From TrEMBL, chain A:
<keyword id="KW-0472">Membrane</keyword>
<keyword id="KW-0813">Transport</keyword>
<feature type="transmembrane region" description="Helical">
    <location>
        <begin position="114"/>
        <end position="133"/>
    </location>
</feature>
<keyword id="KW-0812">Transmembrane</keyword>
<keyword id="KW-1133">Transmembrane helix</keyword>
<feature type="transmembrane region" description="Helical">
    <location>
        <begin position="269"/>
        <end position="291"/>
    </location>
</feature>
<dbReference type="InterPro" id="IPR000515">
    <property type="entry name" value="MetI-like"/>
</dbReference>
From TrEMBL, chain B:
<protein>
    <submittedName>
        <fullName>Carbohydrate ABC transporter permease</fullName>
    </submittedName>
</protein>
<comment type="similarity">
    <text>Belongs to the binding-protein-dependent transport system permease family.</text>
</comment>
<keyword id="KW-0812">Transmembrane</keyword>
<dbReference type="GO" id="GO:0055085">
    <property type="term" value="P:transmembrane transport"/>
</dbReference>
<keyword id="KW-0813">Transport</keyword>
<dbReference type="InterPro" id="IPR035906">
    <property type="entry name" value="MetI-like_sf"/>
</dbReference>
<feature type="domain" description="ABC transmembrane type-1">
    <location>
        <begin position="69"/>
        <end position="261"/>
    </location>
</feature>
UniProtKB/TrEMBL annotation, chain C:
<dbReference type="InterPro" id="IPR003593">
    <property type="entry name" value="AAA+_ATPase"/>
</dbReference>
<dbReference type="GO" id="GO:0055052">
    <property type="term" value="C:ATP-binding cassette (ABC) transporter complex, substrate-binding subunit-containing"/>
</dbReference>
<dbReference type="InterPro" id="IPR003439">
    <property type="entry name" value="ABC_transporter-like_ATP-bd"/>
</dbReference>
<dbReference type="InterPro" id="IPR027417">
    <property type="entry name" value="P-loop_NTPase"/>
</dbReference>
<dbReference type="GO" id="GO:0016887">
    <property type="term" value="F:ATP hydrolysis activity"/>
</dbReference>
<dbReference type="Pfam" id="PF00005">
    <property type="entry name" value="ABC_tran"/>
</dbReference>
<dbReference type="GO" id="GO:0008643">
    <property type="term" value="P:carbohydrate transport"/>
</dbReference>
Length: 300, 275, 351
């Protein structure tokens, strides 16, 4: 017992206690549910069997049923459109802003910091504000676009099947843009000034400096930002209930929200679990990219 | 244009960009101050003709905001407490050593950081139902959301601990302190600011937590403000002035904290997120 | 002399890396021992093992006769000065100095009195209420020293304490540390990669490489009688020159592969291939009776001495007088036979 207490005070026991408590907690509330999720996707889960662990085993029936749902391919397509649309918008605009704020002018870092308010706001509130801005009849975005001559008639962003997913994407770009910009700014700031000076002496113009110095030097940052963007986009949930609820007719539904709808609106927990297992596989793919891109930093 | 004017020109452009970017926030406040008819005016007014804050007390009372906000504070406080208490120690150990086990631990944490809440909510709900935790819905949400918040916290705080030189801790050991003592008297005080910033970030994001609360908490008297907002928000909502007033009341405290601590939050985030 | 620190068959593994290989070392009470070697040789690991900051894989150690294997650092009663000084940035100089006293339950008044005494001996009296970030490099170094001496420990451990100082301050601190050691009658273990520090400060030098002790002894003994080629090359600056050759049939000279020969003061087995070692400062420029010749490449003069490097870059010599030699000159060199070292070409062991 004393030896145990001594190890706790002076040895690795202290470390094991610290890391063990957190890992046990995470194992119980993240690891175990993940496994349970996979288990449920192979079971028949309904209101009667909700409270028991050993439910009838149905093999791949849930997977077959999910794929045969009429909206399955629509949701898959939407998920991909949402992910790539959001990431492209966040990254391109974020990079452009990062380059702009890398210029030397008074207040650059303070103003850049203000952009981050979008990131700390509750997703549901962001959704609410954008829902109002994007409203078809009285939304301010339509007014601005019309006065700029970009559109002639009101676009019903949230209720037009052609635009509904883009309504969520626009809000999501706004939400994630600042974080992208911030991380890219850090990467830009880490490039030594004298590299640019040397390139300038060698006769490279601004465009060439960007292609030959900035981009190559930013490779690991860009990798990390893109994979974090992918993860963040796959995690996005709050905007959907606030903006479109996946509608109209699932034209703006994505895997995460669909899974939740199946479980909590249709009480079909087996299908909800099945969709989220599919979604998890997608996330796993994203995280492999993420871990690869941060690997050298992990090792230091 | 001569070179001396360039910085000021850039400043103007930067302010214009910030104005465009922050327009949605402005629009939230402006809408909440407009009267019913002015909201639907065409073309819309960009400054309310007669700013009218009456909607605030009305929304505050009619939407039982004190109850919702109190629940938000309780839930966010619980999430932050668990995350900070468990996450700090974990981050410290992950920062202090470098070996295969630490790499595995770090990999697990990164993997968990990646899991979307929408993937976890179904098994958590069913699991909580089985062990009877749904009878304590706020506790259930705190546990679920703390597990969601912790990986990000660990990654950020780990970066803070990595900036505390290990030799300081060793000096304390040689000076006669135990591991526990050195951790509390040397390492923690030096990492305090970083931990505090990360705790505030955790609190802020927990304050907006939605999916777990929506799925797990049925009783309106226990729901947080996010669920309260969703109650009158949907694709066909029209009650914009009270939605915006509700939103404004909800986010203004967060925005104030952010603006006050902006510099620290930004530096805390940047040091951690890329490492 | 009694042993203050005794290390017996210490082994240390980091995963597959064997950092310390069966190291045994006795450190006498009151002695100043320097552990020296190239980076990665295990000298810091050995020091940290004495402090208890590293757990050794196998072996035993005692401090002041007490078994210390597996004992945590705080029960070892040793003080350590770190390379980075490791001053607690959130504490004032006084709090830094008295931290260990407070941990050991010394009363506040006593701790303050002790801090004032130590501050007086280390020249910190004016700085007690400052924070480490407000101090210069030399002042920080003194605080680190003060923090060590305030406790009157069983041994002082120094981990390259001078490497962050500029050259002039380093020379000064060398003397101060040694003077402090003598005044306190302390036992000190001093890790450095700088053989000059080791030679000038220590009365016992331990040369390490790749986790083993290559040689230990009094500084001048290491200089005069290195047991192998590594120690010979490591101790002395500029480094010893190594010339391959073969023992002449007479057995009392070395025929150099590069031409010329070196006289020997003793007889060695004729025909044997050897590496001859000659220190740059032991070579004299001679005319007709030169032992061998080489072409001058670079001439560097510091005013007090002239450093000559051969055209092929492999050979150095030091002249204390000014010289007219210039790049491209051919110079004849001679040496006192007693100062020629011989090493086995395969094992590197001194013959």
């Amino acid at each position: 017992m004393t030896r145990f207490l001594n190890a706790l005070r002076d040895g690795v026991g202290f470390d094991i206690l610290l890391v063990g408590a957190a890992l046990l907690f995470l194992l119980a509330l993240a690891g175990a549910p993940l496994v349970y999720n996979v288990l449920m996707s192979f079971q028949q889960v309904d209101m009667f069997t909700l409270g028991v662990l050993f439910r009838p085993f149905v093999g791949f029936d849930n997977y077959v049923a999910v794929v045969q749902q009429p909206e399955f391919w629509m949701v898959t397509r939407n998920t991909l459109v949402f992910v790539f649309g959001s990431m492209t918008g966040q990254f391109v605009l974020g990079f452009a802003l990062a380059l702009f704020f890398a210029q030397d002018f008074p207040g650059a870092s303070t103003i850049r910091g203000l952009f981050l308010v979008s990131w700390v706001m509750p997703g549901l509130v962001v959704g609410a504000i954008w829902s109002w801005i994007l409203a078809g009849d009285f939304g301010v975005l339509n007014v601005i676009l019309k006065s700029l001559g970009i559109i002639q008639n009101n676009v019903f962003w949230k209720s037009d099947p052609n635009f509904s997913i883009w309504a969520v994407i626009i809000a999501n770009i706004w939400l994630g843009l600042a974080f992208n910009m911030l991380l890219l700014s850090v990467g830009l700031a880490a490039i030594p000034r004298d590299l640019y000076e040397a390139a300038e002496l060698d006769g490279a113009n601004a465009f060439q400096r960007f292609w030959t110095i900035t981009l190559p030097m930013m490779r690991s940052t860009i990798g990390a930002v893109l994979s974090l963007g992918l993860i963040g986009t796959l995690q996005q949930f709050d905007l959907f209930p606030a903006l479109t609820e996946g509608g109209p007719a699932n034209t703006s539904n994505v895997a995460g929200f669909w899974s939740w709808q199946l479980s909590f609106q249709l009480y079909d927990f087996a299908k909800g679990a099945t969709v989220s297992v599919m979604m998890f596989l997608l996330v796993l793919f994203a995280s492999v990219i993420y871990v690869r891109s941060t690997r050298h930093e992990v090792r230091g | 244009m001569t070179r001396t004017y360039t910085p000021w020109f850039l400043l103007v452009v930067a302010l214009a960009l910030a104005a465009v970017y922050l327009f949605p926030l402005y629009w939230m406040y402006v809408t909440s101050l407009k009267t019913g008819s002015e909201i639907f005016a065409n073309p819309p007014t960009f400054w309310p003709r007669e700013p009218n804050p009456d909607i605030y007390p009305e929304t505050w009372a009619r939407r039982t905001m004190p109850v919702f906000l109190l629940n938000s504070v309780i839930i966010a406080g619980g999430i932050t407490a668990i995350t900070v208490i468990l996450g700090t120690g974990c981050a410290y150990v992950l920062a202090r050593y470098r070996n295969v086990w630490i790499d595995i631990g770090l990999f697990c944490v990164l993997m968990l950081q990646v899991l979307p809440a929408s993937v976890m909510v179904t098994p958590l709900f069913v699991g909580f139902n089985q062990i009877g935790l749904l009878n304590y819905p706020r506790t259930a949400v705190v546990l679920a959301a703390a597990a969601k918040a912790m990986p990000f916290f660990v990654v950020l705080v780990r970066a803070t601990f990595m900036s505390v030189p290990r030799e300081l801790e060793e000096a304390a050991l040689v000076d006669g302190n135990s591991r526990v003592g050195a951790f509390f008297s040397i390492v923690l005080p030096l990492a305090r600011n970083g931990i505090l910033v990360c705790a505030i970030l955790t609190f802020m994001s927990a304050f907006g937590e939605y999916i777990y609360s929506k799925s797990i908490i049925q009783s309106p008297s226990l729901q947080p403000a996010s669920v309260g907002l969703s109650g009158f928000l949907g694709p066909n909502s029209t009650d914009w002035s009270s939605i915006m007033a509700y939103s404004a009341i909800y986010v203004t405290p967060i925005l104030l904290v952010f603006v006050i601590l902006q510099r620290r939050i930004v530096s805390g985030l940047t040091s951690g997120a890329l490492k | 002399m009694t042993a203050q620190i005794e290390l017996i068959d210490i082994d240390k593994h980091y995963g597959n890396f064997h950092a310390l290989k069966n190291v045994s070392l006795t450190i006498d009470k009151g002695s100043f021992v320097a552990l020296v070697g190239p980076s990665g040789c295990g000298k810091s690991t050995l020091l940290r093992s004495i402090a208890g900051l590293e757990t050794i894989t196998s072996g035993r150690m005692t401090i002041a006769g007490k078994e210390m294997t597996g004992v945590p650092p705080r029960h070892r009663d040793i003080a350590m000065v770190f390379q980075s000084y490791a001053l607690y940035p959130h504490m004032t100089v006084e709090e830094n100095l008295t931290y260990s006293l407070r941990l050991h339950g010394v009363s506040k008044a006593d701790a303050r009195k002790k801090a004032a005494e130590v501050a007086a001996t280390t020249g910190l009296s004016e700085l007690l209420s400052r924070y480490p970030r407000q101090l210069s490099g030399g002042q920080r170094q003194r605080v680190a020293m003060g923090r060590a001496i305030i406790r009157n420990p069983k041994a002082f451990l120094f981990d390259e304490p001078l490497s962050n100082l500029d050259a002039a301050l380093r020379v000064q601190m060398r003397k101060e540390i040694r003077a402090l050691h003598d005044r306190l009658g302390a036992t000190s273990v001093y890790v450095t990669h700088d053989q000059i520090e080791a030679m000038t400060m220590a009365d016992w030098v331990v040369v390490m490489r790749a986790g083993i002790i290559e040689q230990q002894g009094r500084p001048l003994d290491l200089y005069d009688k290195p047991v192998n080629r590594f120690v010979a090359g490591f101790i002395g600056s500029p480094a010893m020159n190594f010339l391959p050759g073969r023992i002449a049939d007479s057995g009392n000279s070395v025929v150099l592969d590069g031409g010329g020969s070196l006289p020997l003061a003793r007889n060695v087995e004729p025909g044997r291939t050897v590496i001859a070692g000659v220190r740059p400062e032991h070579l004299q420029v001679r005319g007709d009776d030169a032992n061998f010749h080489l072409e001058v490449g670079v001439v560097e003069s510091t005013g007090s001495a002239t450093y000559l490097t051969s055209r092929d870059g492999n050979f150095q010599l030091v002249q204390s007088e000014r010289t007219q030699l210039a790049s491209g000159d051919r110079v004849g060199l001679g040496i006192d036979p007693t100062r020629v070292h011989l090493f086995d070409p395969e094992t590197g062991i001194a013959l």
